[in-house]
Amino acid sequence: MFAPASGEQPGPAPGGLWPERYDVVMPVLKRDWPAAERGLPYVLQNLPLRRLVVLSAPDILPLLPKDERIVLVDENTLWPGLTLAAVKEAIYRRIYTDKRAGWYFQQFLKLAYARICEGPAYISWDADTIPLRPIPYQNAAGQYLFTLKEELHAPYFDTIRALFGLEKQCPESFIAENMIFDTALVRGMLAEIEANETLEGGPFWERIINAIAREQLAGSAFSEFETFGSYVTARHPGRYATRRLATLRSGKNILGKTPSPAMLAWAGESYDTLSIEKFNASTPLVLLARSPAYRAKHTAAALEAHKQRYRVIPAVYGWGRSLWPRFKAWGGKYKRMLRKRRG
Question: How many domains are contained in the chain?
Answer without folding.
Answer: 2
